[in-house]
Amino acid sequence: MNSPSITPVLTVEAARVEAEPWPTPRPLACPTPPSLDLDKAIPPGLAPFRDFCAALAEHIQVPTDYVAPIAVAIASVGTARALEIEQRSGHRETAPLWLICLGLPSERKSGVLKVLQEPLNVWKDHEAAYLKHALASYDEKRRGIEAQLTGTRDRQKRATGPQLTELKTHALGLRAQLENMPELLAPELSVSTATPEGIRDGLIRNGEKLIWISDEANEADLLGKRYGDGGGADIDLPCKAYSGMPHDVGRAKNVTHRLKRPALVLAIFTQPGVFAKVIKDETANDKGFVARLCPIWPESIMGERKYYGPPVPAELLQWWGDTFRRLLDLPWPGRVVLTADGPVRCEQATRIVPMSSDAEDVFRKLWNGIEARIGPDGDLRPVCGFAGKLPGVIARIALTLEAMQDPAAEFITADTMRAACEWAPFLLAHFRAVLGDAAEGDDMKLARRVLAKVKRNNLAELSARDALRLFSHGTGRTMEELTPALELLIDYDWLRGPPAAQHDTKGNASPRYTVNPAALA
Please, how many CA atoms are within 13 Å of residue 168, restricted to the half-sphere of its CB? Predict the structure, then answer.
């Protein structure tokens, strides 16, 4: 196909503009997302955490972006259900974080998770041992009442008159006892593979909180299709457990269990190809599942790694273990605890942690900045779902970072909120990079096409009408569609102009643009 004939003649006005130095043009493609600056993204009161993340990354030989985000996500299982942050009067944000790191096989993902979740494994073993005998006694008592109820019901079949009435009354009493003795199990808190049923049962068992930790989740896992037959994603419960919304779940024998404020944490590694399938799933997008995910795709250092780096100092490992266990020991409603009368579910309410006035000022500035960018003409409009939820994610990060410093903290400090806000451009850049073209507006896509055609035709300058003729072969483009793309090319220093309205050979005004010589190099 022959390109439209456009003669690259440099006008006098364009020659004058060309005499001015050209800046280096910015790439139109999504730039490589930045690394998280630990000095800024971790508050001063958590210097040991910063050192721990850096030391673990050096030991395992992975980017620090594989450590700090997953570590904070794992820590958020401690704050989940125990604490909530008050963003503004009457609005509470729950604690669970959904962090997903992308990487190829052999990126040493398992090594990172092994160290980070070790304190959780120790805590679970301790809780199981501590509650073992009390739970066994409780279960035997419960089974005994169930046996009595079964026997009473059998005798009712043969009884009549006053005896039947007495047996019915006795059965009702036994049922009341059982209703006051729900099934109790030692908290597990974590799963490595998750099905919708597994998430449901884990939340019920653990007082409505759970963390899903995986070093290699696949598409079926993430979308709840593990037992599916090719049907749609089953993600209603995970989405509710991210937002803390009530949800009724069905169990065996037509029994419905109401989850009042469930909390599900995700700390997951997966391969880029897997995540690409997830973000293309129609149901996952329509239900806001993708917008809730915080994907991170660090630049790989494979090929430059040492066999292994120096070991993590013992005092830093101890700090991580102690800090994480203090979070896990926070009481939350529904947790199984041991009292003088035996095991029961904790009834202590979730503690609300407000922001200090200075912290609220910092957070409001972040919120206002994002809100201004997700409007119809904003640069974040193509990712408004994720961007709109980002302030809530930052609030959750701030809550976890504050609790890591002091589990009994009465408010979020300004230092902690400033550190948490440093995560916003990092998470946003990674989300946009992972989504690629899907995270860009039509104007940017068209700008790239215009630039490609300018390069192909070796044009030193062109008019707006010339640019439109580049798309004259059945595309149906209009000048109204093209103008924003040309403005983007000016913003990114690929074009200059229009220096003045000039006239084409037909006498119709048509703005002219000069092209950065870098485009023709």
Answer: 9
